[in-house]
Amino acid sequence: MPQPKLNMKRSHLFLDKYFSGESIDYRQMIALFLPLLIDQAFVVGLNLVNTAMISSSGVAAVSAVSMIDSLNIFLISVFIAVSTGGTVVVAQYKGSGNELMVSKAAAGAVSSVSLMALCIGLFGIILHNPLLQLLFGSASPEVMDHARTYLIGSSVSYLGIAVVEAVCGALRGIGRTTASLYLSLIMNLLYVALNFVFINGLNMGVLGMTLSVNIARYIGAACALYYLFRLDSSLHIKLRDLLLLNWSMLKKIMFIGLPFAAEQMFFNGGKILTQIFIVSLGTYAIATNAIVSSLAGVMQIPANALSLTLITVVGQCMGGRQVQDARKFVKSFLVLSSASFVLMGVLILPFFYPLVSLFHPPAEIVGDIFIVLLINTIAQIPLWSASFITPSALRAAGDSKFTSMVSMLSMWLFRVVLGYLLGIVFGFGIIGVWLAMNIEWGIRGTIFLKRFYGDKWVRHRLI
After folding, report:
1. How many CA atoms does the CB half-sphere of 195 hold within 13 Å?
2. What is the pLDDT of residue 189?
3. Contacts of 322 (CB under 8 A, 6+ apart)
4. pTM of the entire predicted model
């Protein structure tokens, strides 16, 4: 047998052994994963470009955007968590073969997420001044002025991104990741294009970024609704389905979504508190954190795509009660995710200096950026997957309360407290804050793995 054919046969045997089962095979998994990988690559890559563009407006501008983005992540994570609840419910109904309930679950997800985003957006607009003073009162007046503009503009845009996230979550639940990819690309490519016009072309700085994010998110929302009402061939959702809340369906979505939302609030609240530590370390520390976060996000692209894929995979497995398939796939995804970090580290670290130059950092902080990035690159290979891949699987099976409780406690007991001790008390600065985060990954991942190898997580009945 010729060598290429032999290698191809071996690869098929390998994929069949570790990524195929009764409920789904490796070809379906690849079809799910590739659009999510492309989506994650574009989202992270475009955020990288956006950060680089706003950095041309000065350290104060990039510091303000970094500060408010930590608050944005906190607020947006609440309705994205509920959207994930919708993905799980849709996936389990899809696995059980109940197409009517799949449509009802998708409509319920879009309605509940949109309503929640509207309330959160109003909260951000009305209380922007108290929020800024409470969280970032020690920032310089110039940074605070930029932050105020960006916070109000971001809050206005929440409803737009909520509609896109909810529709994409429902589409991922039924395995239609290509459609969710197109919607995400429309929104994010438009965002970058408008940033180029407003920031680089018209020199509008943070105000330009605020205009870009609103235009892009609401056009993305319009496209998502158009797809749902006009182009979708299976969900058959009408406008009245979104306006009439199905309380029994909403209860199922919230069973997954609310614990995850609480987790995300506590988790990202801890991140905000960490950001406050960083603000107290000065503008250079804020810029260092923003740049390292952007580069670390690039390294996490494949692993994040795997995490999103696993929600659909495990959700469909558990909907069909294929528990052994679910267990096997989680193990396979854990190994694959860790391997992806090795690959990304090898690809990115040799190009550190060309990449970091995109952000125009002051020469004084380049050394700190490299040290923090190197530590994080090494730590995430053994620690990240257990900490993030495993809870995605547990949550997709309905084990949301346990995963949320562990995440909340580990965040506050270890990342926040240890970050303060290492970063502030013992004087390690930004390096200490990131070391604390890596240690917290290890503790949380160990707990999740112990849960996974037990039986409690597979006993939940969501549908």
Report:
1. 24
2. 86
3. 21, 22, 23
4. 0.75
